[in-house]
Design goal:
With 271 residues, this protein is an alpha+beta fold. The chain has five helices and 13 strands. Strand 2 and strand 3 form a beta hairpin.
């Protein structure tokens, strides 16, 4: 089980669903319906540049200066996979520049943890045991742990393009196609009315190969002058999982929260 984060930009780490899949088997084959994407808007107005759309988003959440004042996030909430009848408590620790730990406790399954300490990406749960992430999974986790990824520094991207105006989750959105320098591609949708990030589609790596994930961001709330999406729904094939964060504590997370668990340390030490 894995949950992708930065709170505005998180895709729920796919490892989370994968681990629960191992612990409570269910079909993982059929493709889910993709978000509704109707024909382009009838508007003949020139589309804004991707950088302009992103700049308006950053302004809408409170501005770059306000965001940079945040050094860490500690969030608590609930995790749910409705079709499988699974619910649990969720806790997230995230700190500059790229440290992340996500913990989900599911009754009868126990704790499912995913983390990145700036170098090592790992997961730990009863279903699959301790695991180190390597290759594309490591690279993806490094991206997800980047505290400032939401700011979309142009230097991190090969290309940034506004493709069209379309419908995403019943909202009129600018559809952006972004390709990072490492080759990771993501399609993002920005609400034309609020300028907020409504969601994204991207391919996530898992122990069983790449899986396309659609992430829907909703219920933005303000903490320390910055808006955060407090509800994230992720769909991967027939799997849907939702995360709702109802408590936020900013600038209080200590480095000790990102220390590797002993079982992970043992794997790191192996030749």
């Amino acid at each position: 089980m894995k949950i992708n984060f930065t709170t505005h930009h998180f895709t729920i780490p796919l490892g989370l669903a994968v681990c629960l899949h191992a612990a409570a088997p269910f079909a993982f084959a059929a493709q889910a319906d993709k978000p509704s994407e109707t024909a382009k808007s009838n508007s003949t107005a020139k589309l804004p540049a991707a950088s302009e759309v992103i700049a308006k988003f950053i302004k809408a959440i409170g501005g770059k200066e306000a965001y940079l004042k945040i050094q860490s996030q500690h969030a608590k909430g609930k995790f749910e996979m409705p079709a499988q009848g699974l619910t649990g408590d969720l806790e997230v620790f995230h700190k500059r520049p790229n440290k992340l730990v996500v913990k989900v406790n599911i009754p009868a399954i126990g704790d499912v943890l995913t983390g990145f300490d700036g170098k090592v990406a790992w997961s730990l749960n009863a279903a699959m045991g301790p695991m180190l992430m390597e290759g594309k999974q490591l690279e993806q986790m490094r991206d997800q742990a980047d505290f400032d990824s939401i700011l979309h520094a142009e230097s991190d991207y090969k290309s940034m393009e506004t493709v069209e105006i379309t419908q995403f989750e019943k909202k009129e959105c600018y559809k952006l196609k972004l390709v990072k320098k490492n080759g990771q591609a993501v399609t993002e949708f920005y609400d034309t009315k609020t300028s907020l990030l409504a969601g994204m589609i991207m391919t996530q790596e898992s122990p069983f190969g790449p899986v396309e994930a659609t992430n829907v961001l909703d219920e933005y709330k303000k903490f320390n002058d910055v808006l955060f999406a407090t509800k994230v729904t992720q769909r991967m094939g027939p799997i849907e999982q939702t995360m709702v964060l109802n408590q936020y504590e900013l600038n209080q997370v200590e480095d000790s929260k990102f220390e590797l668990p002993d079982q992970i340390k043992a794997l790191v030490k192996k030749p």
